[in-house]
Amino acid sequence: MSAITLFRMENARKMSKMKSSGISLISLSDVIEMGVKNPQPQHLPNKDDTYIICYTSGTTGTPKGVIITHRNILANISGWAYMIDKLEPEILDNKTLMISYLPLSHMMEQVSHWTAIMYGARIGYFSGSIQRLTDDIKALRPTAFPVVPRLLNRLYGAIQSKVQNGNFLVRMIYNIAYAKKLDLLKQGITTKESFWDKLVFNRIQEQLGGQVEIMATGSAPISEEVLQTCRIALGATIVEAYGQTECTAMATITWPGDWTGGHCGGVAPCCNIKLADVPELNYFAKDGKGEIMVRGPSVTKGYYKDPEKTAELFDEHGFVHTGDVGELLPNGTIRIIDRKKHIFKLAQGEYVAPEKIENVYIRSPVLQQVYVDGNSLERWLIAIVVPEPKVLEQWNEEHGVKGRSLKEICADKKAQEYVLSQLHQIGKENKLNSIEQVKRVYLEVEPFTVENDLLTPTLKAKRPQLRKKYKEIMNRIYDENRDS
């Protein structure tokens, strides 16, 4: 290192030792002046030059460096722009204010930034702490909000908890308001100005600043019920997209006029999609089910310095293996139904998809986070549950026990049975079969976080790390319940 550029020269005094080491301290204004006095010819990138090497999230193992070219990023941004102009042409402009809280190392945030900049929108950055995100949102009052499903699931859980714990009048008014706004939604009307918004939903909207007009969600599946509730309660256009780093973020997206959920939209304008047979899981393209394969200008040319993994990534026609199993619905949309790499077989020979189960259980107000896993030598599943403290503490008081810490409550077998019963209830409501329903739970006091390496920066579970952390606990649970 030969020089350091300082934004504020008053910091130079604190760094005086640098000078004695032969390192120059230069002000930003001096750097700008040097550039003005020494103009350089422009070297514009070619479309196939590398724009960025973006690493995968590491949910299935070691992150891989995905080479994203200028062609890739421009194709994806153009796809978003085409859909926005078709969806609501005036929803993004120079009055738009987008909040940024996801890391720029994630392609969803990269695409969100460039799309906002292309429309002349403003971008506000959060303070750096997820714990303070709600306060940041209320202060900024964004109109555009890229959102991960976990946040929408939490909002849905809070709404359901409030309604269920309310009296008969509260529940009745909410149900009427919900039905009235659902009628509007089915007519293609998204609003915050109805009588029912002023009576019921405006307090929910204020939790996100009260100004949100458009949200884009991706990175993990979201249920139809959660998506519909958030559209109604927030009075905002919410589009769902599906993709991967290898596809520069987006491969499918909610099409204009589609207010339904339970799918991740139709094929995006920047790529082509086909389904491939997965015979070992009994999925066949002729039945409209198979591995989602993506090809087009938004698809990467490979992994950085990893020719072996790059060769595995593509089929003979240049389509990327996503590893996700999808179903083509009659209206042309795609539903994610399984994940090849996360599916495993139990001792009785039945395959289970833990993420599908987690996406059902996460809707329960009793928990904050859940990780479902099993052992191919065993016949049933276990859930590691991070409970919602207020719910467990309320349960504790109702059972006449006072003065216990959350850790002590979590160790109580009756508390574990209560949480398990709540999971079974919501699982039954969402048609999980008996094999998919977990048979035991372990209550974990400490949440899964980015800091403890159990979540990616976009709040997705790191399954290899979770499996390693809870391996001994799960083995003990199996041993203690060998006859179950």
From TrEMBL:
Keyword Ligase: yes
Any GO MF annotation of the entry: long-chain fatty acid-CoA ligase activity
Domain of life: Eukaryota
EC supergroup of this enzyme: ligase
EC number: 6.2.1.3
Gene3D superfamilies: N-terminal domain of ligase-like (3.40.50.12780)
InterPro entries given in the database record: AMP-binding_CS (IPR020845), AMP-dep_synth/lig_dom (IPR000873), ANL_N_sf (IPR042099)
Domain AMP-dependent synthetase/ligase: 34-304
GO cellular component, one term: endoplasmic reticulum
Pfam families, per database record: AMP-binding (PF00501)
Protein name stated in the entry: long-chain-fatty-acid--CoA ligase
